[in-house]
Amino acid sequence: MLYELIGIVRPGKVAEVKEIATSVGSLILRNGGVVRGISNWGVFSLPRPISVHQMKHTHGHYFVMRYDSSTKVHEDIRSNMRLEPRMIRATHVRLGDGRLESMAKFGKPDWKEAAGSMKVNEV
């Protein structure tokens, strides 16, 4: 199945975002999945203050990852993201129904690159 992960990491160091994206990507690859794309959106204000892990956050560092994996791997990623103390929030979206005909409709991820954003090969 094709999934899209939108993650919000506590702002501060870009290295933390890279670490989290790398750990999720390596989990996907170790279990036979494929990472289709990673995009760094940068730091933005949150729509409302969010309290998580006993801290209140007003800003977050956003990143997006599109990947193919089994349902079991997807559940492992979700549970790991919930336990990660540097994560503020993560949203997962399943794209398509898993059939090749419908997967081809999505095509290449169309993400806008922000100035100073990390490239796919940097992660």
TrEMBL record:
GO cellular component: mitochondrial small ribosomal subunit
Family matches, as PANTHER family: MITOCHONDRIAL 28S RIBOSOMAL PROTEIN S6, SMALL RIBOSOMAL SUBUNIT PROTEIN BS6M
Major location category of this protein: mitochondrion
Family: Belongs to the bacterial ribosomal protein bS6 family.
GO biological process, one term: translation
Pfam families to which the protein is assigned, alphabetical: Ribosomal_S6 (PF01250)
Keyword Mitochondrion on entry: yes
Protein name: Small ribosomal subunit protein bS6m
Keyword Ribosomal protein in record: yes
Organism the protein comes from: Emericellopsis cladophorae
